[in-house]
Amino acid sequence: MDPEPPEHPEDELSALIRGAGDGDERSWERLVDLYARRIFALARSRRLSPEMSEEISQSVFVTLATKLSTGEYDERGRFEPWLFRVAMNRIRDEARRQKRHATPSDPVWFEGARTPPPAAEADASTDALRDAVGQLNDSDREIIELRHHGQMSFKQIAEMLGEPVGTLLARHHRALKKLRSMLETPPQDQRKADAS
């Protein structure tokens, strides 16, 4: 089992939240340092563009700034689950929006450049993993994304989702097993298995 990611001491995090709410620039910088990359990674895990992932990350921090400055956020020791719930809602909304709209294609592709660029070949294993994660059901995918991209502990995920830690551990184990199976099964065998 993966070791739990380190949690930030509650007193330190509470002090940062209070400082950010009071407009302390160092507190804001520290909060951004702690969470921006994790939120960005969550967005990228849904195959959102780097630009859109950055936009979502920024919008989450705008929401945080608004809630802190107006006193709407009440620190109850559940900051990370709250923050990642906001992030996941934005990510899901954008992923749904993109599914409803056609994706523009690079015109060079249609002008005869049919071979993938060398960088695309190097990213084949990453693409295979992303494809496999995309085939998971929503609840399995969510636990993988929160645990591995959001770097949340199982306790934090349990608080966020309102589920027992044991249930989440079992779901995480099952989701990893599914991913391993998908990655180890050649694509043509996977299609045969899906057809039967």
Number of strands: 0
CATH topology of the largest domain: Rna Polymerase Sigma Factor, Chain: A
- In the CATH hierarchy, what is the superfamily of the largest domain? RNA polymerase sigma factor, region 2, helix turn helix motif
Radius of gyration: 19 Å
In whole angstroms, the N-to-C terminal distance is: 33 Å
Kindly provide the name of the CATH class of the largest domain. Mainly Alpha
Produce a short descriptive summary.
With 196 residues, this protein is mainly α.
Please describe the topology of this protein.
Blueprint: H1 10-21, H2 25-45, H3 50-70, H4 79-100, H5 107-110, H6 118-122, H7 124-135, H8 138-149, H9 154-161, H10 165-184, H11 187-195
Helix pairs in contact: 1-2, 1-3, 2-3, 3-4, 4-9, 8-10
Can you tag this structure with a few keywords?
11 helices; Arc Repressor Mutant, subunit A; globular; 2 domains; single chain; 196 residues; disordered N terminus; mainly alpha; Rna Polymerase Sigma Factor, Chain: A; 74% helix
